[in-house]
Design goal:
CATH class of one domain: Alpha Beta
Number of helices: 5
Structural class: alpha+beta
Strand content: 15-25%
Radius of gyration: 30 Å
Oligomer: single chain
Distance between the termini: 89 Å
Helix content: 25-40%
Strand order of the largest sheet: 2-3-1-4
């Protein structure tokens, strides 16, 4: 047993020395970040740069829903209202869509991003969202 231990010890020492003989890797030179930035030193929002954000056409509306019952629709509307997102129930059926839907107000569309939608879809199982033409939508109010 002693000989096996000594053999393993010698092999480990040999392996260590062999690895030290290889050329060590040199650190890669990295240029300073200030060279990449140039004259712009701060972060600027798109609104501040004057570049217009990609806008939706005026005749398109965002609708959320697809829930089966009026109670689910009321709960969804109340949840969106607590997030300061204005909605109106859609009267009748949307073309090519089942369930009951809410039309999101134009001023509230920016508040309803993908993270909010994914959080809501965990609470409301069949929640869907679509961008459709506004001309075919009749709201209840």
């Amino acid at each position: 047993m002693r000989w096996l231990f000594l053999l393993l010890l010698v092999l480990n020492v040999f392996y260590y020395v062999w690895h030290q003989q290889e050329a060590p890797l040199k650190a890669k030179e990295v240029a300073p970040l200030s060279l990449y930035k140039g004259t712009q030193q701060e972060i600027r929002l798109l609104r501040e740069t004057g570049v217009p954000a990609p806008a939706r056409r005026r005749d398109e509306c965002l609708v959320v829903g697809g829930v089966a019952t009026k109670e689910q629709l009321d709960a969804l509307r109340q949840r969106l209202l607590s997030l300061d997102i204005a909605t109106q129930p859609v009267a009748g059926q949307l073309p090519g869509a089942d369930g009951m839907w809410l039309k999101v107000g134009a001023e509230s569309e920016r508040l309803l991003d993908q993270t909010v939608l994914s959080t809501l879809s965990k609470d409301f199982n069949d929640l869907k969202h679509k961008i459709i033409l506004c001309e075919g939508i009749a709201t209840a109010e």
